[in-house]
Structure formats: C-alpha cells, structure tokens
Design brief:
This protein has 222 residues and is an alpha/beta fold. It has one domain: Rossmann fold. The protein contains seven helices and ten strands. It has a six-stranded mixed beta sheet, with helices on both faces. A four-stranded antiparallel beta sheet has the order 2-1-4-5, with helices on one face. Strand 4 and strand 5 form a beta hairpin. Helix 3 packs across helix 4, helix 4 crosses helix 5 and helix 5 runs parallel beside helix 6. The longest helix has 18 residues. The protein is globular, with a radius of gyration of 17 Å. Bound molecules: adenosine-5'-triphosphate and magnesium ion. The site of magnesium ion has 2 residues, from helix 1.
Length: 222
Amino acid sequence: MEILLKAQGITKTFDTGAKTEVLKGVDLTVEDGEFVAIVGESGSGKSTLLYILAGIDTPTSGEVVLAGQNLATVSDDDMASLRRHDVAFVYQYDNLVPHLNAYENITLPLVLDKQKESEFKERVVALATELGIADRLKNYPNELSGGEQQRVAIARALAINPKVIFLDEPTGSLDRERGRQVMEILKEVNEKRGVTLIMVTHSLTHAGYASRRIEIEDGRIK
Ligand SMILES: Nc1ncnc2c1ncn2[C@@H]1O[C@H](COP(=O)(O)OP(=O)(O)OP(=O)(O)O)[C@@H](O)[C@H]1O
Ligand SMILES: [Mg+2]
C-alpha cells in the first residue's frame, strides 16, 4: 500500500496571551484507501490536527508529507495543484456559498480550475444522482435541509476526484437518521471509489464506519 500521509512530531501551540499547547507530538501515517476516524474530547485538538494534516494550518513544529508533497516546503504552484486535484475538505458549518445553487457549489472547484462544463456536467449530475440530490441542484443552500447541504458539500469534494477528503464533523449538525445516511455515503465513497477519508467525529457510532480509529488525548495520540 502506498503511503498517502505521513505526519511526524506535530506540535501546535497557540499564543494568544497565555500559551496553549494543543498538540504535543503527533505521529500519524495513513495509507492510500484508508478511512480514519479521529476522536477525542471537545477541545482536545481534533480540528487543529485535521487542519494541519490538510495543509490549511501550519504546525509549530513537525512535518507533514501529503500526497508526496512536504507541506513545509511545497511551492505555491504545487500546493494549488494539490488543492485542485488531490485534496478536498468538508467543513462542519458554512460549507456552501450562499448565493450559488447546489449545482454551482458542486462545480465551483472545477470552474476555478478552468475545466469546461461540457466535460464535467454529465459526471456531476451522475454524482448528484448517486448522492440523492439530483432533484435539488437548482436550489440554493438556504432551500436545502442540513443533510442535503452536507451531501452537496461531499459532492463538491468528490467532483475533483480527490485522493483524499478531510472531514471535520461531517454529521455534527445532522439528526441521527441523516447522520447515518451521510456515513453510509462516506463508507461507499471509501470502499467503491477508493478515496481515502480522514474524518473528525464526536460520535463513536460514526467512528465505527471507519477502518481505523485514533484518539487524541492530552495533545497526543492515545
Ligand atoms: N486560533 C486559535 N487561537 C487560540 N486557541 C485556539 C485556536 N484554535 C483552537 N484553539 C484552542 O485549541 C484547543 C483545541 O481546539 P480544537 O478546535 O482543535 O478542538 P476540537 O478537538 O476540534 O474540539 P471540538 O470537538 O469542540 O470541535 C482548544 O482549547 C481551543 O480553544
Ligand atoms: Mg473541532
């Protein structure tokens, strides 16, 4: 198996008046095709770690190699390419652009990548059908249920055919049934498409969908 992500000695200290040492040396290796759940108490540093692994935030010390790129030394062009083609992120809240409809939200990364609609439209509609939102594509985010919005966000992540999707509490704002549906979709995305998933979750039930669970406690992996 190919190694998709290797993080070594990750620390993170926030210095806002008082210093908060959130991560105290995290090592993590994720192989291509894994579905990893990151669990831990509120405030334990799950989101902080996820942002660092995805290259959205930088560690205080330590190294992350993601899809063959060392995030500390990667050029702007290579980083942009990683974001356009290989790495997607699904946030817990405010996932979607409010003034774009569902279709426009899903295809935004493709449009920004200057891809032609004639070349992606069919694929995106098929993806939306698979996720059960094909009849909601003309609707704006405020006209969609939480579960539908989350599925649009997952479709947008999948639209670029990424190697890996990072997800921060993708079911956090959903009720139990919709949360279960989203987890079933993610499991299928991982198993059928082979997309690597790295997901933060509060829910031990949802962590059970993953192939591996890691727990953060006191700034380290337990
Ligand atoms: N930008 C920041 N500046 C200062 N402190 C921060 C910052 N971001 C996070 N923290 C602190 O770091 C700690 C870890 O935050 P983080 O968001 O990673 O936790 P979490 O495990 O994701 O929690 P939750 O489950 O509640 O989302 C918290 O104590 C938080 O207050
Ligand atoms: Mg968090």
